[in-house]
Design a protein that fits this description.
By secondary structure, the chain is an alpha+beta fold. About 25% of the residues lie in helices and about 35% in strands. Strand 5 and strand 6 (about 85-90) form a beta hairpin. The relative contact order is 0.20.
Amino acid sequence: MIRFVSKQKNQITHLKAIGYQFPGENDSYYDDNWLLFELEIQAGGKLCKKIDPLFLNYECLEFSKWFLDFPTLPVGAKIFNLENTISLYKLDEHSNQTKENLRIEFNTSILSYQVDSAYLIFEFHISSSDCLEISYCFQQIVNQFPIRFINKI
C-alpha cells in the first residue's frame, strides 16, 4: 500500500492495487494491463473511498523510477497517469514554511463527492527514505501484477 500523510493539513491518501481490471484474457494490450486500486482520500473532513482503474501496471514502473529519482529531480518535475486523473509534481521545499516537496493533484472525476474545482490538491513532505519506500511499493505492484502481453498465433 502506498500512503501519503500530512497530519498538519489533515490530508491522507492511500493507494492499494487489488488486481487487474479485466482478469481474463483480452484482445487489447491496454485492457490486459489496467490495474484496479482501492483509493482512499481524506481531506477537509471529507472521505472518499473508491475502487478505480488508476494505473496501467507499466505506469507503476514509471512511477517507481520517478520516486527513486525524486531527490535529484528538478523542481517542477511532473508525472501523471495515462488518463490524467492523478498528477504529481516536485515542489521547492525551501520556498514554503512547511517544507512540502510533493504535490498530488487528483482530477475530481475520480472522487465520490463534489468539490468546487477541477482538481483536489494535496501537498506533502517526503524524505529520501520515503521516496525509496514509495518506489519499492510501486515496483511490488508490478511484481504482484506483471505486465501481460498478447500472444496471438
